[in-house]
Amino acid sequence: MTSATTFTQHTGEYTIDGAHSRIGFVARHAMVTKVRGSFNEFNGSFTVDGDEPSKSTAQITIETKSIDTRNADRDGHLRTNDFLAIEQYPQITFTSTEIAHTGDSGFDVTGDLTIKDVTKSVTIPFEFEGSAKDPYGNERVGFEGSTSIQRSDYGISFNAALETGGVLVSDKITLEFEISAIKNA
């Protein structure tokens, strides 16, 4: 996408294709490395207004039980009250409140992120990665973006001090979005 005129052709409603999308996160562990994970169950949709991007909208719902860091013990701990408390808070949600076109292919998507019943406004810079017609005749678009949050802002404050200084898990969490979506008929 190189101009607003080109973007107009993408006006419409889209459903996120969970099989070809990823919602992930990165946290620093023991102050020396990064642990990456993802949520394997989520759904969402967005509406693109190519003529007036500010009228576009987006929403997503993530199932907290689907957290996956490729380590069963760690995933089990992340599901407890120390972190996500999945029994009490089964979902994380994001609903856009403002979308601003920031260049040829950039968009700042600002919205309400709710984790553990705490809602904070966050802005996620996204890049439009392109569009294609898949072998089944579906019109697809792709977007990638990331932002950082402080997990303590959402009531997730569990930690352990390290003997050498620092803490076991960073407060800063980077959220990553790799979105493939299909245009609704």
Automatic annotation (TrEMBL):
InterPro entries linked: Lipid/polyisoprenoid-bd_YceI, TTHA0802/YceI-like_sf
Q: Which residues form the Lipid/polyisoprenoid-binding YceI-like domain?
A: 13-182
Which Pfam family, an example, fits this chain? YceI
The record's comment on protein family reads: Belongs to the UPF0312 family.
Instruction: Kindly provide the name given to this protein in its UniProt entry.
Output: Polyisoprenoid-binding protein YceI
Organism per entry: Amycolatopsis saalfeldensis
